[in-house]
Amino acid sequence: MSTDFDASALSEWLQGNLPGFAELLSVEKFPGGQSNPTYRLAAKSGAYVLRRKPFGQLLPSAHAIEREFKLLQAINPLGFTTPRPLALCEDPAVIGAMFYVMELVDGRSFWNGALPELHPAERRGVYRSMIGTLAKLHSIDPAAAGLGDFGRPGNYFARQVERWTKQYRAAQTEDIPEVESLIEWLPMTLPEQAGSSIIHGDYRIDNLIFARDQPHAIAVIDWELATIGDPLADIAYLLMAWVMPQDGRSGLSGIDFAGTGIPSLAEAAEIYCHAAGRTALPDLHWYFAYNLFRLTGIVQGVKKRLLDGNASSTNAGETIAQLIPLARAAWAQACLAGAA
Predict the structure, then answer these.
(1) Among 27, 68, 210, 235, which is most exposed with the fewest C-beta within 10 angstroms?
(2) Which of 54, 76, 103 marks a domain boundary?
(3) Which phi and psi (to 5°) does residue 270 adopt?
(4) Residue 143 phi/psi, 5° resolution?
(5) pLDDT, tens digit, for every residue of 162-194?
(6) Which letter, b or e, does each residue of 68-81 get, where b requires 16 or more Cβ atoms within 10 Å of its Cβ?
């Protein structure tokens, strides 16, 4: 079988480390995704999903496959909607990079947040389920789940701004004035932490799998950026879709919410607050600026990997075209939050 690693070595490892595994038949890389390459494994014993680190030189602290696996091991037994983790390989010699294997969840994925293939009631159901699932994640006690050491202590936003500044600098390929302004402004305007919970870090519609016969989320995937932090970072990241332009992906700005059945920004915030037991959300412009800054750092990393020859997606070129627009959008949100 044709793949970008030694499938026979993988098959041998699976037979020795995955109970009940029998005969690897095919390996197929999932389309999309810019970070940790993900594959569908078909075997006589069933279907599985493999997620690995990218090959080649990586940025410090990025692509922490083992953290993803630890998180899934902690929250899947609690009944939270994730694929069941099955086996972790920390030896890069097997296929060239560390990887883990999890169950394949059979369901629907939606790439376009406008959900053109659904009826209004179904669209509303999808968004209600997605928002409610995030609130459920935020309700899990990290210490009780065995994740007390999953994130560093201290102000979450201070840590994250510092981290993404370092990540951006490590991958920087050009000078972007808006990013330089953000690197100066964000640390000076940090909000106080509003709480501490497990946060996904990249919670958007295409990182969920929905049931085939109803608008109900059955799995949250792609946990690479998960940590312990302020839940406002997660909900603001999700709600940012409402102010981002429609691009065939998660952006919803300008949609006829009443006609499509998709909740408006105010309705979405209300759904979350009701599910999470909050009275309201703060002004979100700072949080939007912060999240767009993170996205800018992520896309800058994709650009660096593309230039280095180890980007994990065939559409990496399209992604890096978003670099300057994201930086400008981040600074525009900063200005709405009071930056000058």
Answers:
(1) 27
(2) 103
(3) -65, -40
(4) -65, -40
(5) 999 999 999 999 999 999 999 999 999 999 988
(6) bbbbbbbbbeeebb
Residue 159: which domain range? Answer: 120-336
Q: Residue 244 belongs to a domain with what CATH number?
A: 3.90.1200.10
Q: Where are the alpha helices (DSSP H) in 152-311?
A: 156-171, 177-185, 231-239, 257-260, 265-276, 285-308
Q: In whole angstroms, what is the distance from residue 89 CA to residue 9 CA?
A: 12
- The secondary structure of residue 262, as a DSSP letter, is P
pLDDT higher than threshold 80 for residue 33: no
Q: Which two tokens stand for residue 85?
A: 């983790």
Cβ contact 158:132 at 8 Å: no
My answer on whether 231 and 282 are in the same domain is yes
Q: How far apart are the first and last CA of the chain?
A: 56
User: Rounded CA gap, 331 and 180, in Å?
Assistant: 10
- 226-256 pLDDT, tens digit per residue, is 999 999 999 999 999 999 999 889 999 999 9
Angle at 225 between CA 70 and CA 283, to 5 degrees: 130
Enumerate residues 6+ apart whose C-beta is below 8 A from 134. 200, 203, 234, 235, 238, 272
Closest of 242, 34, 224, 291 to residue 131, by C-alpha: 242
What are the angstrom distances between the C-alpha of 246 and each of 59, 169, 195, 243, 288?
31, 30, 31, 9, 17
How many domains is the chain partitioned into structurally? 2
210 and 285 both lie in a single domain: yes
Burial of residue 246, with CB atoms counted within 10 A of its CB: 0-12 exposed, 13-18 middle, 19 or more buried: middle
Give the residue carrying structure tokens 């370092």.
166
Closest of 27, 47, 49, 48 to residue 38, by C-alpha = 49
Enter the tokens of residue 319: 């992604």
For 88-140, write each residue's pLDDT tens digit. 999 999 999 999 999 999 999 999 999 999 999 999 999 999 999 999 999 99
Are 216 and 90 in the same domain?
no
Amino acid in position 145: A
Contact between 182 and 161 under an 8 Å Cβ cutoff? The reply is no
